[in-house]
Each structure stands twice: as structure tokens, then as C-alpha cells.
Design brief:
The chain is about 30% helix and about 25% strand. By secondary structure, the chain is an alpha+beta fold. A seven-stranded antiparallel beta sheet has the order 2-1-5-6-7-4-3, with helices on both faces.
Length: about 150
């Protein structure tokens, strides 16, 4: 779970897009539910902000890292204290990685239904928003999921 694998490295256009979405979320503009997540570096302790798409299932909020074991997901494993923000609304949260395959399958399935159009190109090879459950389950380890407490 701690590999440095990314499914797709960001290019300059994607970095600009992510910065724009984060900037808009920081100002309260709801871009398909996007919020700004601040995590703290596992070595440096420095704040790192990225746009995320929280999803609520069964009354519980989750975050998915569709690019795989990214910097923010590895930072959250070491230092689970984070901040979610949209506009002026900011809340401190604790991120708890989910390992239960049934829960992860449900979360990722719903996440892909909602944001597959946006994140589909970042997913592991062979996985699409319309993949069979068996294909999704085969890729669970490559897609970190965190519960937001």
C-alpha cells in the first residue's frame, strides 16, 4: 500500500486545471462537489492542498485517490489530520484508510458513477467507470479510499 505508483502523472494542463478547481473551491464555487483538501507532509510537515471530490454513502463521507498512491494519500496514512474546505467553510477532519473490500467496492463504484467522466483517464489500465465488479475488485489495492471523520 505504500508504493510510489501513480496511474497517470499530471501534465501542465492538468496541474493548471487542478489549481483552478482548488482556487474555485477555496472561494466557495461548487464544481461538481469539489473541495480543497489540506494534508501535511509525512516528512516535511508542510501543508499540501489539492482538490478532491468527497462522496457521502450511507451517511459517511469518503475520499478516493483515483490516481493511486499519490502524495496526498501517502501523507494521510502517516498524518491523518487534514482540513476540508469549500469557500469560507473549513473543517478539521481525520482521514482513516478503508481496507474492507466490500466497503471499498461500494465507495469506488459510486465514486466512478458520479465522477468517472472526470477521473476515468487516471484509473489503472483496464478499469473504467462501467467495469464489472470483478475488474473493480481486482484493482482495489491500487485505489486508496479514506473515511472522513
Amino acid at each position: 500500500m505504500t508504493t510510489t505508483h501513480y496511474h497517470s502523472a499530471t501534465n501542465p494542463v492538468e496541474r493548471l486545471f487542478n489549481s483552478s478547481v482548488r482556487w474555485l473551491a477555496d472561494r466557495g464555487v461548487n464544481m461538481a462537489g469539489a473541495q480543497s483538501l489540506t494534508v501535511y507532509g509525512r516528512v516535511s510537515g508542510n501543508a499540501q492542498r489539492i482538490p478532491v471530490n468527497p462522496i457521502v454513502i450511507g451517511g459517511r463521507e469518503y475520499l478516493v485517490s483515483p490516481r493511486g498512491n499519490t502524495q496526498w494519500s501517502r501523507n494521510a496514512r502517516v498524518n491523518p489530520t487534514a482540513v476540508l474546505r469549500r469557500g469560507r467553510r473549513e473543517r478539521g477532519v481525520t482521514l482513516v484508510e478503508i481496507f474492507d473490500a466490500d466497503v471499498k467496492t461500494t465507495v469506488i463504484t459510486d465514486y466512478l458513477r458520479r465522477w468517472g467522466w472526470e477521473v476515468g483517464r487516471f484509473l489503472p489500465d483496464g478499469l473504467t467507470p462501467t467495469s464489472e465488479e470483478s475488474v473493480l475488485r481486482a484493482n482495489l489495492d491500487a485505489l486508496p479510499v479514506f473515511g472522513v471523520n
